[in-house]
Amino acid sequence: MSFVAGAGLTNIDLLYTGMPRIPDVGEELYSEGFELQLGGGTPATLINLGRLGVPSKIATCLGKDIFSSFAKRKYEENGVSPLNLYSGDGIPVNITSAVILKNDRSFITYGAGSIDADGNALDSFYELAHGSKITIMQTGGFLEVYRKLHSEGTVLVLDTGWDDELSVEKYRDFLEIADYYTPNKKEALKITGTENPDDALKVLSAFFEKPVVKLDKDGVLGLENGRRIFVGSIDEFKNVDSTGAGDAFLAGFIFGLYYGYPFEDCLLFGNITGGKCVTGVGALTEYVGKEELLKIAESKKSK
User: Fold this and answer.
1) d(CA 174, CA 158)
2) Burial readout 282-292 (b: 16 or more C-beta within 10 A, e: otherwise)
3) Per-residue confidence band for 303, with pLDDT thresholds at 50, 70 and 90
4) What is the CATH number of the domain that holds 268?
5) How confident is the model at residue 282, as a pLDDT?
6) Residue 145's pLDDT is what?
């Protein structure tokens, strides 16, 4: 059975909503709402894929703490098989307390750092991802595994995220083996050193047959055989919270790749999954299932 794989730290979000303001030092304020959920990153993309019915596996770090237990349960509930790379006694997940105001937000994060990509972790992740149809690439210590998977024919989809030192030279090793890369506008301009999305696409076309630049709330741009493709955002989706939008876009895009849809449809799927995500607070509150995704896509293509 084919599947999608990825590796990344698990993020846990504690979301406080309905706050009038951020409390000052020594103050205590009560929120109207609270939710505990998994946060963004590769885990969120894989969970969204699991919700779309795509078999998914993740190599991550889980401990014996209550947050890790919560994460493991959520992975399994959403069709994602977790492989634990951690054997210590600490809390190996990232935990973020997010205070969500009407027009602003504030965060406090306990960071577990990064996955220790030692020999055992490399072997374990390769064993997990070997045979995958698609693997999500994160920059970091698993480059050796990605190279093996690339040589075996696995489709690699790169997600760099933001980096103040984002550049082609810094990430050349990853760009040269990835099949797809879906940066947002800010990331695309930074890594290519250009001033507009179209010029960024041209630079990225040196690495990718079908380069992509997300335009945030405006939609997404792509190139295919020299043809510029623009897919607009979904008007009926109203932005409440942009947390996790990029991860959700990636899930829709990979869904299209997984099932062999045309490139333009993959971009549309990404806009739908990303657009639905921002209609709720948090990375994984709002989402579409496979039937709804295909129904919305068909309605957009028929116009």
Assistant:
1) 8
2) bbbbbbbeeee
3) low
4) 3.40.1190.20
5) 85
6) 97
